[in-house]
Design goal:
Elements (H helix, E strand, L loop, with lengths): L7 H9 L5 E5 L5 H10 L2 E6 L2 H9 L3 E4 L2 H4 L10 E5 L8 H11 L2 E7 L4 H10 L23 H11 L2 E9 L2 E2 L5 H4 L2 E7 L1
Parallel strand pairs: 1-2, 1-4, 2-3, 4-5
Antiparallel strand pairs: 5-8, 6-7, 6-8
Length: 198
């Protein structure tokens, strides 16, 4: 069986996860990243996913996934039960992102968090010139049907981490699936990935 093709942010995260790590993928979707970690890194990977169809798809891949809501159910996991927690494209859909960050770093000493940057220049231009919420490749649905309830930016996320005294071990910024510099991330990054730690 060939390895699944990962989104650029997931490929970047997968490359950083150590072989054999205990991993919790929060908002794991259909389990694509979990399967890649299991098959290429021999990780003990578990998933938490709110959508029943995605849970079923992940289970068909033989993955250990439970249906649940990250806003509510992360509290059920014991302290330090994983080496790494992953929250990819889920932060902006949660009701209390600040509390979810606390839970991630209670469950694991390090966590990957990725999200779309709502301060990207294309988003700003759509609002400035069109007066409308943007529909882009990474934000593909209209405002009335999007699951995104928090429009977080790179600067917002950095501020949140600073206010909580959370360390940033590494950060990556993607524009058009290609890396862009940290200096220009607020304007140019469509997507941000942070590795944070206690």
């Amino acid at each position: 069986m060939s390895a699944p093709i990962l989104r650029p942010d997931l490929a970047l995260i997968a490359a950083q996860v150590p072989t054999g790590a205990r991993v919790l993928d929060v908002g794991c979707g259909d389990g694509t990243l979990m399967a890649a970690l299991r098959d290429t890194k021999a990780t003990d990977v578990r998933g938490l996913e709110i959508d029943p169809a995605n849970v079923a798809a992940a289970m068909e891949l033989g993955l250990a996934v439970v249906q649940g809501d990250a806003d509510r159910d992360l509290a059920d996991y014991p302290d330090d039960s994983f080496d790494i927690a992953i929250l990819s494209q889920t932060l902006q859909t949660s009701h209390r992102p600040d509390r979810i960050i606390d839970q991630l770093l209670r469950i694991a000493p390090r966590a990957f968090v990725s999200f779309p940057n709502f301060a990207h220049w294309r988003v700003r231009l759509d609002l400035l010139w069109g007066g409308r919420m943007p529909v882009t490749r990474l934000l593909p649905v209209a405002w009335y049907e999007t699951p995104n309830i928090h429009h977080v930016t790179v600067a917002d996320f950095r501020d949140l981490l600073r206010s909580k005294g959370i360390g940033v071990d590494a950060a990556w910024y993607l524009s058009g699936d290609k890396p862009t510099s940290a200096a220009a991330a607020t304007w140019r990054a469509e997507h941000a990935i942070f590795l944070i730690s206690r």
